[in-house]
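FOLDING PROBLEM:
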Amino acid sequence: MKTKDFCYTLPQELIAQSPLEDRSSSRLMVADRMAGAISNRTFKDIVDYISQGDCLVINDTKVIPARLLGSRMEKGGPVELLLLSRKREDVWEALSKPGKRTKPGDRLSFGGGLLAADVLEIADDGKRLVKFSYSGIFEELLDSLGQMPLPPYIKETLKDKGRYQTVYARSDGSAAAPTAGLHFTDETLQAVKDKGASIASLTLHVGLGTFRPVKEEDIMSHQMHSEYYCLEEAQAEIINKAKRNGKKVMAVGTTSCRTLESCAGDDGMIRPSSGWTDIFIYPGYKFKATDSLITNFHLPESTLLMLVCALAGREFILKAYEEAISQRYRFFSFGDAMLII
């Protein structure tokens, strides 16, 4: 299967540059894969597709302000770090810019010296391992000095950091938001509960590899990035109860979906676990736990688009994307939503 099979042309003006004032006022395209039908709603209507006993699965990861702007202390010149994952105490894997000028032995300064970083080594794909030194609490310094790591296709400045977080974000560690969850408000979640559905949470810390287009011509040659996940026993039981009762499991976002499929046995039941997953879901994959999916509109030739095509069929999804473009839907992280049933 070729990467170009997942390409489409998107007018640049349809890339959403900022979140809507009301999270739940986004548009919602409902894609019924069995009927091959597409309908247009608003996100608040999501509760119309949830029944008593169903289970909504959310990713409670929290985005850290991982973009640090500073300078090289000895050689001079500006430097930018984008923190990807904590490897051990005060040691992080990061992307650096300019990359060629950030070498092992360099010492970097942020916030006028409030936070310093020593470059330890160059890791895979040009990433850097850096060790931070500081006085005080690292998380507080990062919150004060860091910026939200918005995707490069968003050019506008985000005025409120909280708008790149879900209302249920709890577990620090993501370099990007699980964007399908950005549409939910506390009121919408309460409406889900009022329908008699349950809500289960898991954690998958989103890495930047999620948003990168596949560069290989053949998708089978693509090396999927690894991301840390955790699904606790009590939450697994909530999901399994719905499965045992023949009810739907609705994943909020591709991150929730990937975690569910990583934890599911061949019988579709969820095994609580934690670790790193590099599961790559593309057409031909047989879903074990995910019955329906809430997601955003994804970049061409991305692994996220491939996952959505695996669930609903490539031709049907590309047809839905054509419809979304003609109907002027908003695309990508701050854009509108799709529900696949």
The helical segments are 138-145, 186-194, 233-244, 253-263, 303-312, 314-326. The CA atoms of residues 13 and 211 lie 19 Å apart. The chain has two domains: 3-63+161-340, 67-145. DSSP finds six helices and 17 strands in the chain.
